[in-house]
Design brief:
disordered C terminus, globular, mainly alpha
């Protein structure tokens, strides 16, 4: 009882912070079921005062999003972009993190310092140089070009997180494996990958959410053509050139949440363990 009394202020503070953090999402959800006129003339909280006023409720916003031209193709394009742009950097970063953690080669410390330094470089600085290079190589407007861009932008964080996790694995495991004749590749496949699943899953969630919600990089390297447009670009088109249909975004936001929520809850048990292990060393 005393323990609960001492922890009560902390619990109350956590609940209040969670409620405040969730408030914008609640408002967005309520607005997604309100008519355009209701959204433009009153705040979403007024619906809580008069919840039975049927004149302000509608599912038209969701209907507009789900029946819009090219929406299904945009959804498929988002999957085509996001899945490889998540798998490729994880694969490369896992190999690189193992090399930095357990292999000795000239310039290892310098290369790792460069990787850490890239974490603070804004990706916006690289957009124009990469776009000029893509134009010369005819990669602009292709899925391959976007995969490579997302891979390059995601690798520094991936290597850093995975390195901090892999470097903390017990040294005795590797010494025993090497004594038994295992190569670095065998040790990586048989030891590192199974033991690093929490860290791999944590970064997979981060990378998937970032790529799935991305608009800027896709607009620069892929464009908004009907054949290659992704979901965020298609929703942006629905809003209109002057933002006159912004109310559609309230429904579009929740439509785009479905896949990320499935990914997050499917890998949730790894998330906290992997995040803490990949960011706290010692």
């Amino acid at each position: 009882m005393r323990t609960f009394g001492r922890s009560a202020p902390v619990r109350i503070a956590v609940v209040m912070i969670a409620a405040l953090w969730s408030l914008p999402t609640v408002g967005l959800l309520i607005s997604s079921f309100r008519t355009r006129n209701a959204i433009n003339t009153s705040g979403w909280w007024t619906s809580l005062v008069h919840p039975f006023d049927t004149a302000q409720w509608t599912i038209q916003n969701y209907t507009e999003v789900l029946t819009a031209d090219n929406m299904l193709n945009a959804f498929i394009n988002s999957l085509v972009v996001t899945i490889p742009a998540t798998v490729i950097p994880i694969t490369l970063a896992a190999f690189a993190a193992y090399a930095f953690a357990w292999m000795r080669f000239p310039g290892r410390s310098l290369l790792f310092a460069v990787v850490v330094g890239l974490l603070v470089v804004p990706l916006q600085m690289a957009l124009i140089p990469i776009l000029r290079l893509y134009t010369e190589l005819e990669l602009n407007g292709t899925f391959l070009g976007l995969w490579l861009a997302h891979t390059g932008f995601g690798l520094p964080l991936a290597i850093y997180l995975l390195y901090n996790y892999i470097s903390q694995l017990p040294k005795d495991l590797f010494e025993s494996a090497f004594i038994d004749g295992a190569s670095h590749f065998t040790a990586f496949l048989r030891l590192v990958l199974p033991l690093s699943m929490p860290a791999l899953a944590s970064f997979a969630i981060f990378q998937f959410l970032w790529v799935w919600n991305d608009l800027l990089v896709a607009l620069v390297f892929l464009g908004t053509g009907s054949r290659v447009a992704i979901l965020t670009a298609q929703l942006n088109e629905l809003v209109g050139t002057k933002g006159e249909a912004w109310h559609v975004l309230t429904a579009g936001a929740f439509v785009t949440m479905i896949v990320p929520m499935i990914v997050f809850f499917g890998m949730q048990r790894y998330f906290v363990r992997g995040l803490l292990a990949g960011s706290v060393k010692g």
